[in-house]
Amino acid sequence: MSLMANLYVGQSGLATSQNALNTTAHNLANVDTLGYTRQQVSQGTRAYQTLEKRNEAIAWKQIGTGVEYNNCKQVRSDFLDISYRLESGRYAFYDISQKALEEIEDQLQEMNGTEFAESLNNLWVAVQELAKDPCSAVTQSSLVTRCNEFLTRAKSVYDGMVSYQENLDLSVYEMVNNINSYGDRIRTLNEDIVSIESGRHEKANDLRDERNNLLDKLGELGRIEYTEDVFGNVTVLFEGSSFVTTDHVNHIGIDTTLDSPVGYATPYWEYAAKKEYNMYGEEIITSISGGHLYDLTQTISTSTNTDIGKLKSVLLARGDHNATYHDITESEDYYNSNIANSVIMNVQAEFDQMVHNIMTAINQIMEDAESNPATLDNSLGTTSDFAMFVVANKTDALTYDIDDDHPAGSVTTGFTIKNTQINPILLKDPTTFTFRTKDGNEDNDTTEALRAAFTSEKYVLNPNVASRNSFITYYNSLVSQVANSGDVHNSVKEAQEQTVSAVSAAREQIVGVSSDEELEYMIQFQNAYNASSRYINVVSQMLEHLVSTLGA
Questions:
Q1: Residue 111: pLDDT over 60
Q2: How far apart are CA 327 and CA 337, in angstroms?
Q3: C-alpha–C-alpha distance, residues 188 and 33, integer Å
């Protein structure tokens, strides 16, 4: 090789070392940048120059022509990326469930007070005091007052749970908007990356970092699967359905009229919804039955990956309506498939069932009482006119289907927390029900029946629980169930948090930038640059010596 050619060998070293220094400086500048992936320079040899070919020789006589800059690649692990996005989605699922249970505990006043428990206990005390002196105006008034306090407090607790449902419903809109915006941005990044990398000379590493960061965020919101083609396009499946393709994004819509009895947001795939157009050419969604994003009746299980994603957890916790005791009593299959998985609806149904049973039992005893004013005087009306609780709206009915035997509109709500009030007659004059029989004696049978109703253990929380409770122990069992569920979800969340931290740490060891390591590389590449520079100086001096010697 000529001396002039040797200059190109030195030049290749300078250029490659400079590129490596630039990459190292870029890594150091992004040490604290969220989602940044360490970049690594790949170097190789240029094509050798063949001087002589001899068949009897072991190898041809060749000389090198320098070093070549191949590319600047990201250092990532596909396995750890997939694991991180899966486990972070599972952690988000149990985190939402655990926070929902904490909110329920707050609503039941078992963390910051005992107001409802006190109202239930006060009602029980009033029943016992009435049994001691049934004909006393004080004990009669106390019973009506405590029943009113009990119902008022029950309404407050139930309204609190409904309010939390509405707050969760608002978060659904935000999450769906984020999912759609992430999908749109990923598609835009796909186009930019393909455009930059199509020449096979550059890698759009910073754009790839942004795309990976968006995939991380998508993984927290739901179960995703993704693949990258040879051109650099990433296609994404969200909850098993096509989301981001090479040329478009299938957006998720929100329905509030077709699927929820109370107008809660229901996510659906816009491309799968049935549509019609009115006379003005406006699009109208007529059905989303084939486009549901989730099947919320599925059993929640880690083995089948049905416990992944913040959005699904919010939808499950919130439910699709405000549950009542009908959701437990009308159909066991309906309860297990539609109510049991929902943190809030399950507690709503069990809580409403407790209040319903107490009100129904008190009413039945008072209607059957020998001292009922209507029994004493038929002209006053029916015995139910003097019961403690009355239905506020007798025509109110469930607005959703339970099963084929209980379609929407066929089941009147009856004595639910929201549809019950204290009898105005007794509120106006608590002594109207005198608890005195026709012969003037105290109606001890009725007061003893009231006491027995509170201590009779014949009520279960739901069809899946065998242990029976009395009115006194039912509420404690309900609170214990919420606390136990909270402990289970919290344990799973903490275990999942450790898993996510371990996977994240392992991934960070690969993709993360170590300032000490990069400084070592910088010294290494700087020395290589200096060596190439000295090599060129030596060649230059040799050429100068030859030219000056020959010239003389």
A1: no
A2: 11
A3: 22
Residues 515 and 32: beta-carbon distance below 8 Å? no
Residue whose entry in the numeric block shows the structure tokens 């209980």: 406
Residue 176 has pLDDT above 90, yes or no: yes
- Cα three-residue angle 512-518-522, rounded to 5 degrees: 155
Q: What letter represents residue 44's amino acid?
A: G
What pTM did the predictor assign? 0.85
For residues 489-494, average pLDDT: 91
Counting Cα atoms < 13 Å in the Cβ hemisphere of 159 gives 8
Range of 17-26, 414-423, 534-543 with top mean pLDDT: 414-423
Alpha carbon distances (Å) from 247 to 33, 189, 219, 357: 30, 12, 22, 58
More confident residue, 510 or 363: 363
Give the Cα-Cα-Cα angle 150, 152, 156 (nearest 5 degrees).
Answer: 115
* pLDDT at residue 129 in the model: 93
Angle at 524 between CA 520 and CA 530, to 5 degrees: 140
Query: Which residue, 155, 63, 99, is CA-closest to 352?
Result: 155
pLDDT of 344-388, one tens digit each?
A: 999 999 999 999 999 999 999 999 999 999 999 888 889 999 999
**439: which DSSP letter?**
T
Identity of residue 239: E
The length of the chain in residues reads 552
> CA-based Rg of the chain, rounded to a whole angstrom?
37
What is the per-residue DSSP string for 513-529? PPHHHHHHHHHHHHHHH
Task: Identify the DSSP state of 32.
Answer: T
Q: Write out 159-186 in H/E/C secondary structure.
A: HHHHHHHHHHHHHHHHHHHHHHHHHHHH
DSSP-based three-state secondary structure for 235: strand
Number of other residues whose CB lies within 10 A of the CB of residue 188: 14
CA distances from 166 to 153, 160, 179, 396, 486 (A): 20, 10, 20, 22, 21
3-state secondary structure of 392: coil
Residues 349, 323 contacting (CB under 8 angstroms): yes
Q: Is 117 left (phi over 0), alpha (psi -120 to 50) or beta?
A: alpha
Q: How many helices (H) and strands (E) does the chain have?
A: 14, 13
Predicted pLDDT of residue 552: 54
pLDDT band at residue 405 using 50, 70 and 90 as cut-offs: confident
**Angle at which helices 471-511 and 444-455 cross, to 10°:** 20
Computed over every residue of the chain, the mean pLDDT equals: 88
Do the beta carbons of residue 56 and residue 531 sit within 8 Å?
Answer: no
* Sequence letter at residue 303: S
